[in-house]
Structure formats: C-alpha cells, structure tokens
Amino acid sequence: MEFWLKLMFGSDIGLMSMIVVIATFLLISFYAGYFIYKIKTDQPNE
C-alpha cells in the first residue's frame, strides 16, 4: 500500500495521472447519467 501511495502522490507525474483517471471517470459518469436522463424524460413524437 505504501508503494502505491508513494507512486500516486510522491511525484508530480503520479498525481497528474491520478487526476486524469479521476477526471475521465467523472466525465464518463456524467455523460452516461445525462444520456439515461434524456432517455427517461423524452416524450414520444406524435
């Protein structure tokens, strides 16, 4: 566990890579949630 903490937060490269991974996960979650929301609230065209 200490190895991973040092790898992630011990250097700037590790910290930036963790920020990129977290930001990517947040973007994917947001777009998936928005897509599901739009499908559930869409009215049929008549």
Describe the structure.
83% of the residues lie in helices and 0% in strands. The protein has 2 helices and no strands. The protein has helices spanning 2-9, 12-41. The protein is rod-shaped and about 60 Å long.
Feature tags:
single chain, 2 helices, mainly alpha
Rg value: 18 Å
The main sheet comes to: none
Shape, principal axes of CA atoms:
rod-shaped
Terminus-to-terminus distance: 58 Å
Total strands: 0
| Low-pLDDT segments, ≥5 res | none
- Give average pLDDT, whole number: 87
Helix content: over 70%
Structural class: mainly alpha
**Helical stretch count?**
2
Helix/strand order, N-terminal first = HH
- Fraction in beta strands: under 5%
Structure described in brief:
With 46 residues, the chain is mainly alpha-helical.
Any chance you could write out the topology, listing elements then pairs?
Layout lengths: L1 H8 L2 H30 L5
